[in-house]
């Protein structure tokens, strides 16, 4: 990991419409572009290509900071307030669910100084807008005072494995999994709904029954409200970078991945078997009804999972 460069951007708007009707949220907020955590599998690496950059180290070493994020958000919501004659409940209903952290971790290290995510929360809390936040960072606990006042639907803590060595190879600058589990417990103890995004599940690395059971059992022990599993997705730009990591850290797995990932997702036989196994574990630990990766089946039915026009708005 190098020393990151931070570049300020002026955002035209902070609330971005999510056009995919299959997504469980209507709007997304990302106060930053790029992420210092440097997860090799991160689908959002592809978003750097929109800025004329590569999905390589640039994603974690060149981070864009939307300095006016809260101000732009305030302007957008103020317009809605005028449209609905000052009725905050109507504004919240019209807005629908807002997902924070769909293309970057809103609590990556720069947030400790820049405080852009917190400033956005200070705006949202005034409107009662339903919010979901996805992060790997304990820095979210700093904002407990706001979270307890907000209309929080869920806080999603991403953990793909409890194996610290695998985690460090795949997520070089992210907090360790054990600390992330503690975040879930602390949030739940303060009445803030939190759970685990078991994401992504990586073939041959984190998909064994013992490894997955260890994580799901730990989620239960830490009072997680839910566990939501997702299989690894590799868009073309991300696949090149991820395979480079495999070659360095797990060269023995390269051929297996090349066989599984002809497209963005592994073949259906693998995913169906995996999800059946996960579903059984979720039921065992009383997280029933969460074992189906609907996103996979939706993408499988598309003619092309890697078309340039695909909306990159997934929150896990």
What distinguishing features does this structure have?
alpha/beta; three-stranded mixed sheet; seven-stranded mixed sheet; 13 helices; globular; 316 residues; disordered C terminus
Description:
Helices cover 39% and strands 15% of the residues. The protein is α/β, with parallel strands linked by helices and 316 residues long. The strands form two sheets. A seven-stranded mixed beta sheet has the order 2-3-6-7-8-9-10. The protein has a three-stranded mixed beta sheet with strand order 1-5-4. β9, α9 and β10 (227-231) form a beta-alpha-beta unit. α2 runs parallel beside α5 and α9 (209-221) runs parallel beside α12.
Outline of this structure?
The chain has 316 residues and is of the alpha/beta class.
Q: What would you call the structural class? A: alpha/beta
Q: How many helical elements? A: 13
* Neighbour order of strands in the largest sheet: 2-3-6-7-8-9-10
Oligomer: single chain
First-last Cα distance: 23 Å
* Poorly predicted regions: 290-316
């Amino acid at each position: 990991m190098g020393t990151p460069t931070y570049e300020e951007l002026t955002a035209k708007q902070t609330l971005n419409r999510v056009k995919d009707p299959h997504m469980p949220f209507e709007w997304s907020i990302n106060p930053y572009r790029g992420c210092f955590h440097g997860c090799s599998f991160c689908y959002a690496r592809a978003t750097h290509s929109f800025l004329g950059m590569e999905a390589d180290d640039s994603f974690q070493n060149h981070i864009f900071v939307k300095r006016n994020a809260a101000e732009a958000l305030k302007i957008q919501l103020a317009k809605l307030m005028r449209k609905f004659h000052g009725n905050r409940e109507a504004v919240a209903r019209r807005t629908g669910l807002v997902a924070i952290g769909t293309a970057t971790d809103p609590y990556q290290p720069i947030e400790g100084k820049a405080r852009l995510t917190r400033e956005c929360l200070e705006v949202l809390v005034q409107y009662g807008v339903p919010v979901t936040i996805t992060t790997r960072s304990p820095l979210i606990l700093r904002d407990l005072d706001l979270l307890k006042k907000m209309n929080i639907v869920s806080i999603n803590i991403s953990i793909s494995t409890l194996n610290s060595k695998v985690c460090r190879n795949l997520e070089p600058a992210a907090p360790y999994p054990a600390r992330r589990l503690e975040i879930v417990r602390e949030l739940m103890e303060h009445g803030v709904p939190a759970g685990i995004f078991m994401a992504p599940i990586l073939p041959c690395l984190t998909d064994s029954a013992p490894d997955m059971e260890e994580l799901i059992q730990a989620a239960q022990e830490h009072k997680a409200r839910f566990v939501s599993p997702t299989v690894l997705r590799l868009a073309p730009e991300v696949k090149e970078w991820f395979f480079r990591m495999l070659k360095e850290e797990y060269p023995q797995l390269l051929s297996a991945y090349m066989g599984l990932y002809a497209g963005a997702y592994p073949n259906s036989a693998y995913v169906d078997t995996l999800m059946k196994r996960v579903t059984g574990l979720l039921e065992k630990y009383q997280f029933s009804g969460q074992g189906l990766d609907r996103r996979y089946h939706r993408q499988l039915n598309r003619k092309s999972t890697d078309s340039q026009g695909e909306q990159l708005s997934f929150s896990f």
